[in-house]
Task: structure prediction
Amino acid sequence: MPYSSSEGKGFFEDWFFHMFCAGHLNSMLDIGAGSGEYGKIAKAALSKGQVYRSTGGFVRSAVEVWKPYIDKFNLFQVYDVVYQNNIIEMVDEMSPYDLIVLGDVLEHLPKTLAIDLFFKLKLKAKFIWLSIPVRPFYPWQVGYDQDSSEWRDNPYEEHKYYWTYEEIIETFGPFLTTVQYPIVSVFLARGST
Result:
Protein backbone atom coordinates (compact mmCIF):
# COMPACT_ATOMS: atom_id res chain seq x y z
CA MET A 1 0.00 0.00 0.00
CA PRO A 2 1.23 3.49 -0.72
CA TYR A 3 0.07 4.60 2.74
CA SER A 4 1.58 3.73 6.08
CA SER A 5 0.31 3.88 9.62
CA SER A 6 -0.03 7.36 11.11
CA GLU A 7 1.85 6.11 14.17
CA GLY A 8 5.12 7.90 14.66
CA LYS A 9 4.36 10.69 12.18
CA GLY A 10 3.85 13.30 14.94
CA PHE A 11 7.15 12.25 16.51
CA PHE A 12 8.80 12.53 13.09
CA GLU A 13 7.43 16.03 12.60
CA ASP A 14 8.65 17.21 16.02
CA TRP A 15 12.08 15.63 15.65
CA PHE A 16 12.51 16.87 12.08
CA PHE A 17 11.49 20.44 13.03
CA HIS A 18 13.92 20.54 15.95
CA MET A 19 16.83 19.10 13.97
CA PHE A 20 16.21 21.43 11.02
CA CYS A 21 16.00 24.51 13.23
CA ALA A 22 19.21 23.46 14.98
CA GLY A 23 20.98 23.28 11.62
CA HIS A 24 21.53 19.50 11.61
CA LEU A 25 19.43 18.75 8.52
CA ASN A 26 19.82 20.18 5.02
CA SER A 27 18.72 17.21 2.92
CA MET A 28 16.54 14.13 3.11
CA LEU A 29 15.88 11.07 1.00
CA ASP A 30 12.53 9.31 1.44
CA ILE A 31 12.93 5.74 0.23
CA GLY A 32 9.74 4.07 -0.95
CA ALA A 33 7.89 7.38 -0.86
CA GLY A 34 4.51 5.88 -1.73
CA SER A 35 1.94 8.65 -1.24
CA GLY A 36 4.63 11.09 -0.04
CA GLU A 37 3.55 11.42 3.60
CA TYR A 38 7.06 11.98 4.97
CA GLY A 39 7.74 14.56 2.28
CA LYS A 40 4.53 16.42 3.14
CA ILE A 41 5.41 16.42 6.84
CA ALA A 42 8.90 17.70 6.08
CA LYS A 43 7.54 20.42 3.80
CA ALA A 44 5.18 21.68 6.53
CA ALA A 45 7.92 21.56 9.18
CA LEU A 46 10.31 23.42 6.88
CA SER A 47 7.77 26.19 6.37
CA LYS A 48 7.48 26.68 10.13
CA GLY A 49 11.23 26.26 10.66
CA GLN A 50 12.28 29.00 8.26
CA VAL A 51 11.32 31.49 10.97
CA TYR A 52 14.09 30.06 13.17
CA ARG A 53 16.68 29.38 10.52
CA SER A 54 17.71 31.77 7.78
CA THR A 55 20.31 29.61 6.06
CA GLY A 56 19.97 28.19 2.55
CA GLY A 57 17.46 25.76 1.17
CA PHE A 58 16.63 22.21 2.03
CA VAL A 59 16.53 19.42 -0.56
CA ARG A 60 13.71 16.87 -0.26
CA SER A 61 14.37 13.83 -2.44
CA ALA A 62 12.47 10.58 -2.90
CA VAL A 63 12.98 7.16 -4.41
CA GLU A 64 9.89 5.32 -5.61
CA VAL A 65 10.20 2.13 -7.59
CA TRP A 66 6.54 2.00 -8.71
CA LYS A 67 5.95 4.67 -11.37
CA PRO A 68 2.14 4.68 -10.98
CA TYR A 69 2.61 6.05 -7.42
CA ILE A 70 4.78 8.89 -8.71
CA ASP A 71 2.02 9.94 -11.06
CA LYS A 72 -0.99 9.18 -8.84
CA PHE A 73 0.36 11.05 -5.81
CA ASN A 74 2.06 13.89 -7.75
CA LEU A 75 5.36 13.21 -6.00
CA PHE A 76 7.12 15.86 -8.09
CA GLN A 77 4.99 18.44 -6.24
CA VAL A 78 5.99 17.02 -2.86
CA TYR A 79 9.73 16.50 -3.42
CA ASP A 80 12.41 18.54 -5.17
CA VAL A 81 13.88 15.41 -6.76
CA VAL A 82 12.15 12.08 -7.45
CA TYR A 83 14.05 9.02 -8.62
CA GLN A 84 11.96 6.30 -10.24
CA ASN A 85 14.31 3.47 -9.37
CA ASN A 86 14.92 0.53 -7.09
CA ILE A 87 17.04 1.71 -4.13
CA ILE A 88 18.99 -1.57 -4.27
CA GLU A 89 20.23 -0.61 -7.75
CA MET A 90 21.28 2.93 -6.82
CA VAL A 91 22.48 2.77 -3.21
CA ASP A 92 26.17 2.27 -4.02
CA GLU A 93 26.34 5.32 -6.31
CA MET A 94 24.03 7.73 -4.50
CA SER A 95 25.08 10.92 -2.77
CA PRO A 96 24.98 11.26 1.02
CA TYR A 97 21.97 12.79 2.80
CA ASP A 98 21.55 14.23 6.25
CA LEU A 99 18.39 12.16 6.74
CA ILE A 100 17.30 8.95 5.07
CA VAL A 101 13.73 7.82 5.76
CA LEU A 102 12.83 4.13 5.56
CA GLY A 103 9.11 4.32 6.27
CA ASP A 104 7.61 0.85 5.88
CA VAL A 105 10.26 -0.37 3.45
CA LEU A 106 12.42 -3.14 4.95
CA GLU A 107 9.53 -5.60 5.34
CA HIS A 108 9.22 -5.58 1.53
CA LEU A 109 12.71 -7.05 1.11
CA PRO A 110 14.14 -10.48 1.89
CA LYS A 111 15.95 -10.39 5.24
CA THR A 112 19.54 -10.53 3.93
CA LEU A 113 18.83 -7.84 1.32
CA ALA A 114 17.22 -5.59 3.96
CA ILE A 115 20.25 -5.95 6.24
CA ASP A 116 22.68 -5.20 3.43
CA LEU A 117 20.66 -2.15 2.35
CA PHE A 118 20.40 -0.72 5.86
CA PHE A 119 24.15 -0.84 6.48
CA LYS A 120 24.93 0.62 3.05
CA LEU A 121 22.50 3.46 3.79
CA LYS A 122 24.19 4.12 7.14
CA LEU A 123 27.32 4.97 5.17
CA LYS A 124 25.33 7.55 3.19
CA ALA A 125 23.45 9.29 6.02
CA LYS A 126 23.85 11.41 9.10
CA PHE A 127 20.58 9.92 10.46
CA ILE A 128 18.27 7.08 9.45
CA TRP A 129 14.60 7.14 10.39
CA LEU A 130 13.23 3.59 10.34
CA SER A 131 9.51 2.95 10.76
CA ILE A 132 8.44 -0.66 10.39
CA PRO A 133 5.59 -2.94 11.46
CA VAL A 134 6.90 -5.34 14.09
CA ARG A 135 3.84 -6.94 15.61
CA PRO A 136 1.28 -9.25 14.05
CA PHE A 137 -1.66 -7.31 12.68
CA TYR A 138 -5.28 -8.05 13.41
CA PRO A 139 -7.05 -9.61 10.43
CA TRP A 140 -8.70 -6.32 9.45
CA GLN A 141 -5.39 -4.49 9.25
CA VAL A 142 -3.12 -4.64 6.25
CA GLY A 143 0.35 -5.96 6.89
CA TYR A 144 1.20 -9.40 8.20
CA ASP A 145 -1.20 -12.06 6.99
CA GLN A 146 -1.21 -9.97 3.85
CA ASP A 147 -3.63 -11.12 1.18
CA SER A 148 -2.21 -11.27 -2.34
CA SER A 149 -4.78 -8.67 -3.41
CA GLU A 150 -2.73 -6.12 -1.45
CA TRP A 151 0.17 -6.47 -3.86
CA ARG A 152 -1.37 -7.91 -7.01
CA ASP A 153 -1.08 -4.61 -8.89
CA ASN A 154 2.25 -3.61 -7.35
CA PRO A 155 4.58 -6.56 -6.69
CA TYR A 156 6.87 -4.32 -4.61
CA GLU A 157 4.17 -4.12 -1.92
CA GLU A 158 4.50 -7.80 -0.98
CA HIS A 159 5.89 -8.35 2.50
CA LYS A 160 8.96 -10.59 2.21
CA TYR A 161 10.05 -10.76 5.85
CA TYR A 162 8.30 -10.21 9.18
CA TRP A 163 10.57 -8.47 11.66
CA THR A 164 10.25 -8.55 15.43
CA TYR A 165 11.20 -5.60 17.63
CA GLU A 166 13.99 -7.55 19.33
CA GLU A 167 15.35 -8.73 16.00
CA ILE A 168 15.57 -5.16 14.70
CA ILE A 169 17.43 -4.05 17.85
CA GLU A 170 19.88 -6.95 17.58
CA THR A 171 20.38 -6.66 13.81
CA PHE A 172 20.48 -2.92 13.20
CA GLY A 173 21.26 -1.33 16.59
CA PRO A 174 22.42 0.60 18.42
CA PHE A 175 19.78 3.29 18.03
CA LEU A 176 19.59 6.83 19.36
CA THR A 177 15.96 6.22 20.27
CA THR A 178 13.18 3.71 19.72
CA VAL A 179 9.44 4.11 20.15
CA GLN A 180 6.99 1.23 20.10
CA TYR A 181 3.46 1.88 18.86
CA PRO A 182 0.67 -0.70 18.55
CA ILE A 183 1.26 -1.30 14.82
CA VAL A 184 4.73 0.05 13.97
CA SER A 185 7.89 0.84 15.83
CA VAL A 186 10.18 3.75 15.06
CA PHE A 187 13.95 3.55 15.30
CA LEU A 188 16.36 6.46 14.90
CA ALA A 189 19.93 5.55 13.99
CA ARG A 190 23.02 7.65 13.56
CA GLY A 191 24.70 7.18 10.22
CA SER A 192 28.36 7.56 9.29
CA THR A 193 28.40 10.93 7.52
